[in-house]
Design goal:
The N terminus is likely disordered. The radius of gyration is 26 Å and the shape is globular. By secondary structure, it is an alpha/beta fold. The protein has twelve helices and 15 strands. A hairpin with a 2-residue loop joins strand 14 and strand 15. The strands form four sheets. It has a seven-stranded mixed beta sheet, with helices on both faces. A three-stranded parallel beta sheet has the order 2-1-3.
Amino acid sequence: MKNFKKVLAVVMALALIVTCFAACGKKDTSNDKKDAVLKIGFTGPLTGDNAQYGLAVQYGAQLAIDEINAAGGVNGMKLELLYQDDMADPAAAVTGYSKLIDDGMKVSLGGVTSGACTAFLGEAADDNMFMLTPSATAVEAIQGAYAFRVCFSDPAQGTVSADYIKDNGVAEKVAVIYDSSDAYSSGIYKNFIAEAKVKGLDVVAEESYTKNTKTDFSAQLQSVKNSGADLLFLPIYYNEASLILAQAKTAGLNVKVFGCDGLDGLVSMENFDKTLAENVMLLTPFSTSATDDLTVNFVKNFKAKYSETYLNQFGADAYDAIYILKAAIEKANVTADMDASAICEALKKAMVEITFTGVTGTDITWGADGEPVKKPIAVKIVNGEYVVM
């Protein structure tokens, strides 16, 4: 028995020694911020017909993150960008969001397109995941106290477009062609029509198409031609707009053309005849021809790193989104050791307290509804370049 007790004592002593060495050798990282990283993620169309939007967001966000990290990060953290290709498909966006969560995302840039962003709002709500989408414009894309956006909403774009056209005497008789199967297009259209009635703007033709009929616009264009409209309002994306402009020329339709941010990127399309876009007008929060220092530096740095093809409003909104997050993170004193829910609670309070000036607007503020308050910029395409009107 004595021998057994001696052996047991030796074993216990050795166990204590091993435990001691293990404890001494294990580094306490709870307060070590040297390698702290905050992961920010988004889903977007990085391939397919709408890739110009998704890649612009990826590049704009990455440029801002690189600049912030090079300057020392924020609150002792470096930022890291995660992304998943959703091809503008809602189901793929849901899958992508789940993958981003698995990869450690703690702050979301939502989805690039409205349908994709809206698709995973339920999951984001369950996770209490803070969201700041650069470009999802549908009202329903930021439902919930945790969701904000950088861009204008669809209703705002429709309302402001009607106001601008009427108040500046751009046209008296307006025709509209919109995508009735798309939340972005339909949302702008509905509010444009409502505001046009309030302003006394004469809408003489309202034509639609769907995702299954978006190649042949001959019938719609003939209706516009017969209506006597002097302006065609296109609350649509640039892919369909390029086809409409080409077919309008063939049909001999000579009217002014006015659009929203979905037309941004039109002149950058590969193999697109830029002369078709001559004098096309659009409302956008960003213009490469702006002369303020922030925009000049952004344009210069973007061109140095990425193709000019992706230098559009989507990239600018994403660039600002990262800097907006930086301002909110500093305001809320967010750190990398906080979980996503705690970060969300901190950031949503900070967002309604900050005022931000970037490349997409000055003195931008946010309400509790997540909507930005800022002024749009009206531009006209002249010789393939945006000229502020």
